[in-house]
Amino acid sequence: MSLHPVVARVTERMRQRSAATRGDYLQRVDAAAARERSADRMGCANVAHAFAALPGRDKFRVVAERVPNIGIVTSYNDMLSAHAPFASYPDIIKDEARQRGATAQVAGGVPAMCDGVTQGLPGMELSLFSRDVIAQATAVALSHDVFDAALLLGICDKIVPGLMIGVLHFGHLPAVFVPGGPMASGLSNSEKAKVREQAAQGLVGRAELLGAESRAYHSPGTCTFYGTANSNQMLMEAMGLHVPGTAFVNPGGELREQLTREAVRTALSIAKGRRHTPVGRLVDERAIVNAMAALLATGGSTNHLIHWVAVARAAGITIDWDDFAQLSAVVPLLARVYPNGSADVNQFQAAGGPGFVIRELLDAGLMHEDVLTVREGGIREFTCEPALAPALTPALSQGEREQHGQGRSAPPSPTEGEEHGQGRSLPPPLGEGGGGGIVWHDIGPSRDPQVVRPTSEPFSRTGGLKLLTGNLGRSVIKVSAVPADRHLVEAPARVFDGQEALLAAFKAGELECDVVCVVRWQGPRANGMPELHKLTPPLAVLQGRGFRVALVTDGRMSGASGKVPAAIHVCPEASAGGPLAKLRDGDVVRLDADAGVLQALVTDAEWSAREAATMPQALRQADGHGTGRELFASFRRNALSAEEGACTWL
Q: Where does the Dihydroxy-acid/6-phosphogluconate dehydratase C-terminal domain start and stop, copy by copy (predicted)?
């Protein structure tokens, strides 16, 4: 299938727009790659310090035998469910490296915070900027400059983009991303949302709400809704930065371990020179477009309209929301995963998962096939799914898999796959040294058309994201979960200076009407651009009562943005003199997702004559003390706009 003309045009515009910065970036990558091996160019004291803690045999190998040395950058902590599985990974990686005649060291750790824990609390004001801290921590970890490849252990919202930004500044290194997988399914996402809406109305108390939340978030692994964390994993697959099919294999069990070992073999196959795919060469305009297409086809997180702009900038590539909008007009919606449907990511995986979506997009010419990946077989390998090799399969029974939290059957054996029309077993393209306990299978047709569909029968002919423009600025809206009859809302505005004020108005019964709720002073420069996901339940309640309701904000919502129309990331933000600062209570606002309009229905003369409000002094206390926010004052001062990736390092 030839490349779709719109995909080709968007890619070419990116290439032309980025020619100078990308060229400079690749020159730096090539210069770093051309240097002598680190242990040979460094002073003796430097080398001794770098490898002093290695076991004697490993020390001899890396210095005298000149074997590859893998740097591990990990987001492990045991407070957060998604990162807890990484505890055992370094030992597995080191063991596999030794078996393959190499060494591995934990180069460093990066912080990992959870928006679910900090949602609606002061700590959330650190969340977006934690991405750049993670990038900096990744750079510190790799700055010792003694590594021949990198394995990046991360999974959640800001962690993967931060690791990406950081490692792209070491673009001469081969890099493979290693996820931990989702927790087994608990209380369904729809049931969880129902209890939240009941709590917002006072119909259930704290005990019932806590019980529901604890049944939903109950074990190691990522949350099971298709939010930013799981969108990250979809994008890593689409960019060819994982071992194929790794994203949504549950923690624990032999398959998960074998995939981690295969990541080592994959990195070594590049580091030992079998093919030249350092991460800086791999992440080019085509790879970025592939990630964008996968995001749109699955109705992924709106946060990536910020994060992937920043990731691209780290590779010398400039993208903007027009690029997303033009791709969204031709990329169909192929997946219904909560909040865009009732299925969770485990059901998405069982129905065909990332491999199914990637295959459909490739076959329709909506992704670039001529891209580099961490695998020799290219992006087509990412259309298959992994399973334990037959010799290993009996070692782990279904009961044991469930005990390890996998929660579903392993992918079928070759014989079972053929019986179900999944095609033949594909041999794994192993890294140096051969071996391994994995085989890959063709995915075949959708196993659940209510969850994933082919491009010939999509859920929607267009992607789930729209660009909005008008006298209120530039904004984006996720429409994949919004009912079609709610794509247009025109109603008087209620202007709030923070989410707590909106929640108070809801509880006081002041919003029982058609209303556009405007929450301003929430951009990167104002307070770090926190997610406003706590607003979803009350607004959903109002919509459920028949009112026409919308949210407009210069803040973020969430990867879990749902059925209420929300124009988010408004640029320029109010605290930078943006037009939201001119809005007043009672102004009629028109949000039209179909036409791409976000407009205050105020005459041009009156609008231009209005003075913009200034950020209330009380809100400027974000620069004061509390949960470390004072340490991020320089981030707020230097942050670019949301459409520019909210970058703080440029």
A: 450-646
| DSSP strand pairing (588-592 vs 566-571) | unpaired
Domain extent, residue 471, equals 465-644
pLDDT in tens, 39-93: 889 999 999 999 999 998 888 888 888 999 999 999 999 999 999 999 999 999 9
Q: Which amino acid is at 508?
A: A
Give Cα separations from 92 to 81, 146, 240, 257, 499 (angstroms): 20, 21, 22, 8, 45
Q: Is 6 exposed, middle or buried (0-12, 13-18, 19+ CB in 10 A)?
A: middle
User: Does residue 342 share a domain with residue 271?
Assistant: yes
Do 370 and 488 lie in one domain? The reply is no
**Residues in the annotated binding site for [4Fe-4S] cluster:** 156, 223
Place of tokens 């405007």: 518
- Residue at which a domain ends, from 195, 218, 241: 218
pLDDT of residue 228: 92
Q: Average pLDDT of the chain?
A: 90
Q: Give domain status of residue 457, yes or no.
A: no
- The answer to whether 454 and 360 have CB atoms below 8 angstroms apart is yes
- Residues ≥6 apart with Cβ < 8 Å to 394: none
Any domain includes 47? no
Using CA atoms, how far apart are residues 184 and 191, in angstroms rounded to an integer?
A: 16
d(CA 226, CA 414): 29
Domain-embedded: residue 49: no
Here the CATH number for the domain that contains residue 496 is 3.50.30.80
428 Cβ contact list (under 8 Å, min separation 6): 262, 386, 436, 438, 439, 440
Report whether pLDDT(270) > 90: yes
Distance CA 420, CA 411 (A): 12
Do 191 and 262 lie in a common domain? no
Per-residue CA distances from 22 to 27, 152, 163, 317, 639 (Å): 9, 23, 20, 6, 22
pLDDT computed for residue 399 by the predictor: 40
Contact of 556 with 529, CB cutoff 8 Å: yes
Query: Which of residues 409, 442, 475 is at a domain's end?
Result: 442
* Structural domains counted in the chain: 3
Q: Is 165 left (phi over 0), alpha (psi -120 to 50) or beta?
A: alpha
Binding-site residue set: 156, 223
| Same structural domain, 212 and 259 | no
Query: What is the chain's length?
Result: 650
Pairing mode of beta strands 465-470, 473-478: antiparallel
Percent of the chain exceeding pLDDT 70 equals: 92
Q: Are residues 212 and 82 in the same domain?
A: no
Q: In what order do the strands lie in the sheet with 175-178?
A: 103-109, 69-74, 149-153, 175-178
The answer on pLDDT for 610 being more than 90 is yes
Residues 136 and 239 in one domain: yes
179: which 2 tokens? 């996820």
Residues 191 and 307 in one domain: no
State residue 494 phi and psi, 5-degree precision: -115, 120
Q: Same domain, yes or no, for 425 and 300?
A: yes
Which residues contact residue 640 at a Cβ distance below 8 angstroms, ignoring those fewer than 6 apart? 524, 646, 647, 648, 650
> Which pair of structure tokens corresponds to residue 418?
């053929």
Task: Render pLDDT for 147-199 as a digit per residue (tens, 0 to 9).
Answer: 999 999 999 999 999 999 999 999 999 999 999 999 999 888 788 888 988 99
